[in-house]
Amino acid sequence: MATTYAQRDYPPIPEIKRIGVIGAGQMGAGIAQVAAESGFEVRLNDISRQALDAAMSRIDFFLGRHVSKGVLTEEGKQQALARIVTTESLEPFRDCELVIEAATENEELKRKIFAALVPHLKPEAIIASNTSSISITRLAACTDRPERFIGMHFMNPVPAMKLVEIIRGIATEEDTYQAIRGVCEKLGKQAVTAEDFPAFIVNRILLPMINEAVYTLYEGVGTVESIDNAMKLGANHPMGPLELADFIGLDTCLAIMQVLYEGLADSKYRPCPLLVKYVEAGWLGRKVKRGFYDYRGETPVPTR
Ligand SMILES: NC(=O)c1ccc[n+]([C@@H]2O[C@H](COP(=O)([O-])OP(=O)(O)OC[C@H]3O[C@@H](n4cnc5c(N)ncnc54)[C@H](O)[C@@H]3O)[C@@H](O)[C@H]2O)c1
User: Fold this and answer.
1) Candidates 104, 134, 163: which one to mutate for ligand 1, based on the most atoms within 8 Å of Cβ?
2) Domain 3-hydroxyacyl-CoA dehydrogenase NAD binding, which positions (predicted)?
3) What pLDDT shows up at residue 8?
4) CB 258: neighbour CB atoms within 10 A?
């Protein structure tokens, strides 16, 4: 059998036992939880100690819910929590076989993170990005290991959602792809493979729908409640599009629309000015308790 370039030049991928997660927001915390529940040792990194503490109390709460539903024992919960180490440094990632980046959706920021991460990694470690939309090929190219770089797009909330989209960059090697399929299986997730085009499969379809819902509000076709009710009752969606936008985070929604707009150079993807305005106001959705809905009271009410 012919020796491939990868077999010649890259160390083989070891068994993946330790996973580093960068970014302890809603996605990073969910990924850390699922990985720890599945038996992986986890290092969870964020620049903000407050985000790390909030992530650990959310993980504690969600694991507690699994205990009360009888799907996890109290001992299992304590063992999972003990498998997660939080850190504001990237140094503890030195022994990880896989690092999953789940920081804010901003290409410049992600590039800086990878530049800072690479010197700490062992040569055989795989880097995955949970980006919702940014080119895996471009992100891979700013590391020393594009062959060991891949997109691993989890869905929100991570513990509840079955899907992981796997995206190969142009240089991603087959053994990297197979190793990541194996990790998805161990995490109890189902993988779907998407090509490396802006926003991949799920968000290429979902985000223009959400953006259109914001235009519908902007143009006065409906109110926040009528738009959400129309899509829940008329299209059988479990959540209305504006409620879903709040759940995803309006900054993330806007960032994905900008990637689609610029990456596909098609005006049909232009972000709705009202979405821009909400982000400029800092009304980013559920995570800050205000977006299209205001979550500060007992039940959510439209913000405007
Ligand atoms: N929200 C969703 O529904 C969803 C779904 C799938 C994928 N994603 C993707 O996951 C990523 C994270 O999204 P999120 O919703 O968890 O965002 P979030 O705003 O909840 O969390 C982002 C976290 O990244 C941290 N961070 C920022 N700069 C950092 C740095 N230099 N080093 C370490 N941490 C840093 C922030 O402090 C914050 O805690 C994005 O790429 C997003 O596109 C989001």
Assistant:
1) 104
2) 19-196
3) 52
4) 18
